[in-house]
Design brief:
It contains 4 helices and 2 strands; from the N terminus they run H-H-H-E-E-H. With 135 residues, the protein is mainly α. It has a two-stranded antiparallel sheet. The termini are far apart.
C-alpha cells in the first residue's frame, strides 16, 4: 500500500506540472482567454483522479463480491461527478456569454445605423456578427 500512496503523490505532482506548463504555454501564445477553461479541466481531472484513488484505497481489504459492488457504484458515482462538473462549467460559460461578452478580451467599435449611436463592446468579430445592434 505504501507504493500505491507514493504513486498517488507522484501522479498528483505530474498533474500539477502539466497544469502549470499548460498555463505558461497558453500565456506565451497569448491565448489567455483559455486559461480558465484549462484550469477547470485540470481541476476536473484532479477531482476525478483523487476520487478514484480514494475508492480504490478503500477496497484493499474487501471481499470479491464487495469489490464488484463497489466498482459498479464507483463507476456510476465518478460518471455522475463528471456530468455534474461539466454541467457547472456549461452554466458558468452560459452566464459569461450572456453577460455582455466579457469573456473574450477583444474590443470592437460599432455604430448603430440611423441612430448615430457609437460605442465599444468587449467581444470578438465572430460574436459581434451574431448580435443584433438595431434599436
Amino acid at each position: 500500500m505504501k507504493e500505491y500512496i507514493t504513486y498517488i503523490k507522484s501522479h498528483c505532482r505530474w498533474i500539477l506540472s502539466v497544469a502549470i506548463l499548460g498555463v505558461v504555454v497558453l500565456w506565451i501564445l497569448d491565448w489567455t482567454q483559455h486559461i480558465t477553461g484549462w484550469l477547470w479541466g485540470m481541476m476536473t481531472y484532479v477531482v476525478y483522479f483523487l476520487y478514484l484513488a480514494f475508492q480504490t484505497y478503500k477496497m484493499k481489504d474487501a471481499t470479491l463480491d464487495d469489490v464488484k459492488r463497489r466498482v459498479w457504484i464507483g463507476v456510476m458515482s465518478r460518471f455522475s461527478l463528471i456530468v455534474l462538473l461539466v454541467g457547472i462549467s456549461t452554466q458558468i460559460l452560459h452566464d459569461v456569454v450572456s453577460d455582455g461578452n466579457h469573456y473574450c478580451g477583444h474590443t470592437i467599435s460599432y455604430t448603430v445605423t440611423g441612430h448615430g449611436t457609437t460605442g465599444d463592446s468587449k467581444c470578438d468579430g465572430r460574436r459581434a456578427r451574431r448580435i443584433d445592434w438595431s434599436v
